Amino acid sequence: MVAGLLVMAFLSGLLGIVLVISARRLPADTMTVVDQVNGVLPHTQCGRCGYSGCRPYATAIAAGEADINQCPPGGDEVIVALSQLLGRPAKALDESFGLAGPPIVAVVDEDICIGCARCLDACPVDAILGAAKFTHTVIANECTGCELCIPACPVDCITVTENTSQLDARAAH
Amino acid sequence: MTNGRTSNQALPLPAWGIRLESRKVDSETGAIKKMPPPGELIVALKQNIGVPAETIVQPGERVLKGQPIAIASRWGLSVAVHAPTSGAVMAIEERPIPVAGGGTGESVIIEPDGKEERYAGYVAQMNSKRLPPPQIRNEIMEAGIVGMGGALFPTATKLNPGSGIQALILNGVECEPYISADNALLTERSDQVLRGAAIMLAALDCDECLVAVKADMAEAQAAVQAAIDALGDDRISLVVVPAFYPAGGERQLIELITGKEVQAGGLPWDVGVVCQNVGTAAAVAKFFDEGEPLISRIVTVTGDGVGTAANIEVMIGTPIVDLVEFAGGYTDDAAGLVMGGPMMGFSLPHDQLPVTKATNCILVAGQAELDPSVREMPCIRCGECARVCPAALMPQQLLALARGPDYEALESQGLQDCIQCGCCDYVCPSYIPLTSRFIEAKQGLWENHLVSQRSALALRRFDARGERLERRESDRSDELQRQVDEIGPAGEIDADALRQLKQRVKSKKPGDKT
Ligand code: SF4
Ligand code: SF4
Ligand code: SF4
Ligand code: SF4
After folding, report:
1. B226 vs B170, B181, B193, B217, CA distance in Å?
2. What's the pTM?
3. B458 and A173 in contact by Cβ < 8 A?
4. What is the CATH number of the domain that holds B281?
């Protein structure tokens, strides 16, 4: 009887330890899911998904709060990759978040730019080069085409064009 | 490595590859014809792998034969481009250019004046072999010379492998059926090719050159041997490779001659070899001997659809329509245009495209020469394709993976090593166009790589920006702290004074002046 109780106590103690360990592990695991989801997202960092960037969206997906079809820049490929990663059904892009399109890149019209430096802060990837009172320019290779700089410009001198550098790079290959 | 292999004894046949009917005879007979300047030259600025050259002329300007019209770009691999003849620059504009899949490229349009007046900026250099290697390379770059076998890789870059090069292989194998431009060059101008070889040896600081010629090119072999004997340069020797396809592929040729395999993703340099096309060597000699940069090339114009098949020396930029006209025009049988050979060439949408430095052959296919529209059938896993693949791949497996497409698996299965030779297509009993599937899949793989590279870069920069903002924030609070410290500790707050202050504020009525 006593021996039985002791065994029970020992076992529950053991279970407790196991539970503690796994409880410690759990947050780490959710971390990896966020990282994995984040790794699949395109990092345009445009916020079209309704979150402030790719990582917050990844966190929401991992927590089951957001669906996997809200990233327009990622398009079908990202949706398919997410559905494979998470075992959730693939579905069409929810176009209320925006339409998928060809890769784009921002261009500053250097004749109009007044050097106000406001777009510098808007760019999530520091792709705009410039200083106050100097004409700014977009480092085309580093621009993700998120369009966040467009509303920031007081003289509307930033436009987007299709990013053909991928094709050029291929030709150079 | 293969010293003294100057007999006409061909190397043994390898396990891979296929035998093809030669079909060269049509164009082989007769001397190289020289085509006069056409009415208009379309000189594309992108005549090399890498970045297009940058124009230095304006519309309306008169240019001379051999004058540089565009200089090598600083933004990547690039070589200069020259005016093929004297005349007026009519425009600088986008024009269709002959590339697989079609496309346009910025081009300098020149209207020849027929005077062939030469540019005086380049002169013949008789001591070329004694120049220091870097200078030789610079001049080759200046001369706009690229790999003329069709690869368009800047030659000077290829001649700069560092030390440890044991042999220069001059590729005159030309294993595609129909094409005989290199054959004609070797038959008529072996001496020029060998002079170019000697300059390349000097640039490489290397003592062995093997001129590789195919077993069924007897005339070319004899001409090369005679030129070697006449030159009396014992560093150069002839090597005969078996007549099968694709013996002229760079890796395949190196493996045949040296027995060494260039590893996937590796370069011929890794096995101590540099490979150059014979036409490239001739272009090098022409520049150093005559001061003429690369402004013309030999093109095989052949096929049932053209009047008289021939090898024609033609100015870069000559429209293909004029070239075909010069070769006797189209026959009634003409059914399609291909640039390059039937195995690795690509079809052209029309004939308003210019000859480029890569144009080794224009095949005007007759009805019978065009792919009969056979129906593709499912793969029966016979393994024929794997037997002939010169890159030791498993085409049937790649085919299945390309359907997905599973890029990761395609990459680990060596898709990148496919040289697009078309051997697998040729032997497939189910008529599966494997090669075009692989070309598509390679394209997809490349785009896939780009997308992930771009997003990795964006993530890195996004994170770096986060750190920067954090740093700025902490710098600000540090600064605040510093200022607070400077003023000194605030000390105990006088509770009484505080209470009085609060009361004063409260008793104040709105509108009162302080
Ligand atoms: S829409 Fe896509 S790319 Fe834009 S922030 Fe959201 S996850 Fe990132
Ligand atoms: S430059 Fe404009 S469009 Fe490009 S990443 Fe920065 S904010 Fe986005
Ligand atoms: S897989 Fe590529 S390299 Fe191999 S036979 Fe086919 S085309 Fe040639
Ligand atoms: S040759 Fe054709 S049928 Fe045979 S295994 Fe290869 S792809 Fe399949």
Report:
1. 16, 19, 12, 14
2. 0.73
3. no
4. 3.40.50.11540
